[in-house]
Design goal:
Layout lengths: L6 E5 L17 H6 L4 E5 L2 H5 L6 E6 L2 E6 L7 H14 L5 E4 L11 E4 L5 E5 L2 H9 L5 E3 L5
Parallel strand pairs: 1-2, 1-5, 3-6, 5-8
Antiparallel strand pairs: 3-4, 6-7
Helix pairs in contact: 3-4
The structure holds iron/sulfur cluster (SF4).
The site of iron/sulfur cluster has 13 residues, from α2.
Length: 149
């Protein structure tokens, strides 16, 4: 019988880390409280890659596929983010729960604006991390912070 604690992956900005693009946090203390007794695994793919603060990024649909582009420079950072997120999944192969920041181009789940190449919103969709997590942690439902407010 294993005595290992259950594990929850939580977007780091929800946990109070100052890792948002604007250098701020979005702490929602109710989320960490809801997982009292769990091992909390903070997750933020953008800060280690691009620093904080940093240029905003967007999800942009190009030829039917979502890409992640920097907001001003339109640099495609999809591959960089994918590599960072896949490395996180390899390092953390097991999770019992996942809570991601809504509306984020990385973390958002069903809440992130997906833009066309002119910057108009086409629909709400997933950030790149949510898409990858759906595959890598296919048994684990993804929640966002609003589920704990
Ligand atoms: S939403 Fe995700 S990528 Fe953005 S700051 Fe929070 S943890 Fe980092």
């Amino acid at each position: 019988m294993s005595s290992a604690r259950k594990k929850v992956i939580i977007s780091a900005c929800i946990l109070g880390e100052y890792c948002r693009y604007d250098g701020k946090t979005k702490e929602i203390s109710a989320v960490a409280k809801a997982f009292d007794g769990y091992e909390i695994i903070p997750f933020c793919p953008e800060a280690p890659l691009f620093g904080t603060p940093r240029e905003r990024i967007d999800v942009v649909e190009i030829d039917g596929e979502n890409h992640i582009l920097t907001h001003e420079g339109k640099k495609d950072v999809t591959a960089l983010l994918r590599e960072e997120i896949e490395a996180f999944c390899l390092a953390n192969p097991h999770a019992d729960a996942i809570v991601l920041k809504a509306k984020s181009p990385s973390c958002g789940y069903k809440t992130t604006p997906v833009l066309d190449t002119e910057g108009r919103e086409l629909k709400k969709g997933n950030g790149i991390a949510a898409d990858i997590f759906l595959q890598r942690y296919s048994e684990v439902p993804i929640k966002n912070e609003n589920d704990y407010l």
